[in-house]
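re: ur question from yesterday

yeah so i grabbed the chain u mentioned. its 217 aa long if i counted rite. heres the sequnce exactly as i have it in my notes:
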Amino acid sequence: MNLYELSKKFMIEHINNVVLDDLPLSERVYRIEHSIRVSKYARMIAKAHGYDITVCSVAGILHDVGKFESEINKDHGRISAVIAREFLESLQLDKKLVNDICYCIAKHCDGEAGYEYEQIIEAEIVSDSDNIDRFGIYRIVQALHYSDFDSLSLEEKHKFCNEKIIKLENYVTKKLSTPTSTKLFNETCSFQLDYFRRLKEEIEFTLDEKVYIDSKH
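ran it thru and got these structure tokens back, copy pasting raw so excuse formatting
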């Protein structure tokens, strides 16, 4: 089993074994799936530009391993790095490889690793990959689910779409650390932006109409 597969196995087992009474299974599943997608993006970007694929793919798969053990969300990268380091060091890997991977993980959330280390492009790639997935198609499903969109009034739905559109318009032309990162990020943001613009348009078709629903049906 190679390092990526070992790391994926560790990440899945660790997330599934975190003891939190109010943590839904769906949240664990999403975090695992998100980590796999981030790793794939990171590997793709590293390969396209000749950067360290191993560092990027392993850091990507482990970047959120401590997500559910952080009391403050912005600290979850640094907590994940501590958990990842213990695992990676147990494999007797090259010290610099471990340090590079852990730095990428520690820094990915808010750009602060919490300690001094040489700046490496792989850390930016992992952070970019996390952002690409955060603005991906699956996040549309999540946004609608967490807002309980179906239960909102037409006015509330319209406001929800407007807020999403404003946010996405600010991100859609953002430049990331590499041309490939930027292309992937812009594509995902553009798709979301188009979706919420179209959804807003459909809501506006009926916004001024009085709609009566028979509660018996």
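noticed a couple things. Residues 179-207 form the longest helix (29 residues). also The mean pLDDT is 93.
anyway ttyl
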